[in-house]
Amino acid sequence: MLRKPKKRWTPSNWASWKPFGIGEQYPNNYWEVFRAIWLSRDRLPYAWNILNQGVCDGCALGTTGMQDWTLDGIHLCNVRLRLLRMNTMPAFDPNLLADVGQLQMHKSSELRELGRLPYPMIRRCGEKGFRRVSWDEALDVIATRIRATTPDRLSFYITSRGTVNETYYATQKAVRAMGTNNIDNAARICHSPSTAGLKAALGVGATTCSYKDWVGTDLLVFIGSNVANNQPVTVKYLHYAKKAGTKIVVINTYREPGMERYWVPSIPESALFGTKFAEDFFLVNMGGDIAFLNGVIKHMIANGWVDESFINRYTTGFAELKATIANQSWEELEKLSGSTREQMYAFAKMVGEAQKAVFVWSMGITQHECGEDNVRAIINLALTKGFVGREGCGLMPIRGHSGVQGGAEMGCYATVFPGGKPISPENAAQLSQLWGFAVPTSKGLIAPEMIDAAYNSQLDVLFSVGGNFLEVLPEPDYVEDALQRVPLRVHMDIVLSSQMLVEPSDTVVLLPATTRYEIPGGVTQTSTERRVIFSPEIPGPRIGEARPEWEVFMELARRVVETRHVASLHFENTAAMRQEIAQVIPQYAGIQHLQQAGDQFQYGGSHLCFGWNFPTVDGKAHFAPLSPTVGVHSNDPLPADCFLVATRRGKQFNSMVQEPKDAITGAFREAVLMNATDANRLGLKAGDAVILKNELGEFQGRVYIAPIQPGNLQIHWPEGNVLLDKGKRSREGVPDYNAVVRLEIRDQSSLHECY
């Protein structure tokens, strides 16, 4: 039984005795409310209905209306408020695109603010801009080009921005009907290492617990995750977790201010005095997570803090892990982690003393070349105490986008079929029998490989739903060059993006999409905790000729494939699609019954692997012997003016930058977060202009003194993509969003290389 939060006020948890944190750096959430009201003042009733009835299109908590299934009360965060105007703003005048020369100089934020994309538009090579066309002409152009080439020269990508399960399912089915598995989504470049790691270790591919397990567990650990910025509603969970006696710990390169304290606006006590969250921060080097966690396990073994009974009865591979760690010296673990033996002991003692614990991680763990091993290291630690499959325990790769959990589960993935089934002749044959057309049997191109294929002139059609390759992937100049080599690019979205304006090799087609709230029949999304939630259509204004993505893909496929397959490429409505989803994907049985706001179910129940029943081949959980990575390059110490650099989020949603200043950290977009010790050593002070360089590019910024691990820097993403190596990817294909750089002061140059 989990402990309950204390009802009385607890001054020991207060962040400050100053009312409302006067003078402190933190977001003004009340201002965000008034800002959202002002921006949507032309459509206030519609905006209110979206907030009050729809499922949030921000992060993957699955807030429905302004309620959730974790805590009572009103849940409304600034992420959702910032996205609201994209759902309520009117269309722009299509004549604006007649000449895109000036628009190409605009920032993405400025392009978004122009308004909604209202009509299909087309641009040919040599033309200054786009002209309006009918849906029939646009789809005919696309279908003709698809029929004229071979399936291996087609690629389709779908972002997670508000994308729903029905869109994912219909799109992957349509693409496979057109003969290819070259279909991928945003889950690829965020949590695919988590899915792979969990599947290999536990036999499941999603979070094993629920958000309720945060409140009242003994130990809540965040590793490479900043929920205060990316999933702001969770700060309410943290507030009540603290009141229930939960110990919160963060392992990260930077002492994130929002994870240290926050003023939760909807809780009077916290709104007045703030809440202290993390009691301990363990700072590690970028890429030092495995070394740190191995050191923690080494201490736990030495002190007898592991659960031998659980390990012997329910796991395999522990002897190999123990032997591997025994061969790793403390000197090596300290050097690679950037931590100390004493700090590893302190955290090991916390884990050893806890009866229940939840481990939460995000992009700081997965977006590394060793992302899968990082995830396995966390799983290893959790398994030493059996922290899975029971109340107050679990492993949670927390999602940052409302649609991303369902994307791969619907099969909108180059490497799996619906339900996460491997792409194989046997599974393809089963789908072929069900769908009535031949399903391709070989794996497709993942998102980064699509760009590589485009660069090498191996693509004839690239169809992108939402997203922006220019701002998401490393080496943006390379990406732009690749996009310019594709004969037909199709971009379907609700607003303009910079990738739409890249010069055409031959033809670029723009297609206007509806938002999730405009789709007739309503739709569903899957939250981080595997909760499948119905979001109804919200009556209100509609934009030009915008259409649901699923409907467009179904029609496109019918235009491409043989007539005899057309019947299976038609859905009467989204309800009919949910019927088929329930048939094809066993864990989604129940989705066919979701019909109105508030309808939901949590597949797998509140805990996967409940009772330590692991759906692996041998029925056991699997430890993995891991050797720590060596920074990002070599064993040799970095020269004095060279640093490990990681990219980070500021005031933004995915790559959509919303403000130049991060209200939580106080850092502007040009900030180079640096430890005071490093700054003093180099004779730098806050605000000094510096240049970060490596063989790929350079980033110009200004020193921002911050509590970050010495020898490490952080800069904002996507601006920092110019320093990242497109060839460095994890086994699942996630780009490594980290690098080694040389720091130069003004025009000074070093005489040596760091890479």
TrEMBL record:
InterPro entries the record matches: Asp_de-COase-like_dom_sf (IPR009010), MoPterin_dinucl-bd_dom (IPR006657), Mopterin_OxRdtase (IPR006656), Mopterin_OxRdtse_a_bac (IPR010046), Prok_molybdopt-oxidoreductase (IPR050123), YdeP_MopB (IPR041953)
Sequence ranges assigned to domain Molybdopterin dinucleotide-binding in this UniProt record: 644-739
The organism of origin for this protein: Fischerella muscicola CCMEE 5323
Coiled-coil annotated residue ranges, if any: none
Cellular component, GO annotation: membrane
Protein name: Formate dehydrogenase
Keywords annotated in UniProt: Iron, Iron-sulfur, Metal-binding
GO molecular function, one term: molybdopterin cofactor binding
Chain ranges of the Molybdopterin oxidoreductase domain: 116-558
Domain of life: Bacteria
Spans through the membrane: none
CDD domains: MopB_ydeP
